Amino acid sequence: MDTSGLVVFARTNAALRGMNSLFRTRKVTRKYEALVCGHVAQDSGSVDLPLMRDYECPPFMRVSTDDHQRALIGLDAEVVGKKMLESPKDSLTTYEVVSREDMDGNDVSRLTLTSISGRTHQLNVHCAAIGHPIVGDTVYGFEGEAAANGGLDESALPEDKASAELQQAIASASAGKPMCVHAKSISFRHPVTKEDLSFESSSSF
After folding, report:
1. CB burial of residue 152 (10 Å; 0-12, 13-18, 19+)
2. Does 169 score more than 70 pLDDT?
3. Residue 19 near residue 191, CB atoms below 8 Å
């Protein structure tokens, strides 16, 4: 996914091993800034929805439900691949509304997103699953390549969800532009020097 912003590179093998351990044990704090479709009603909240590989739209991800898990029963790992049959992964995202804005006459919200669990495509799926896909997301957004609404039924979305008409208008206005999600800050203790480090980067949207 085309996320802009901060990236961490290890310069030594020792630092690489240490950083891998920090990420694996969730000792790295990552915050993202995103524009999402519609006005998010709550000023802050969390999205606690497990993720799984999407057996209908590979290689993308979706929210795991009991029905989705039952659909995997009897599938041959040799045919669909072992990763497709992996157990769902606990996934948690917290959000804060920075501002509710207007983009070319369309309602959008600027959010600070914190990825607690750091799963593949987690922010994209979680935003879609609460009815507010990320602006410019051509995979999990309006008529994207992945399952709509993060794989959830329309009836499972909250009342403040962005309407299909609004999502379509925003998709048209943002066509050809980068996706509006930016790795804004990252904080961790250096695995070798033990120095507390924090970095920030401003978004371009």
Report:
1. buried
2. yes
3. yes
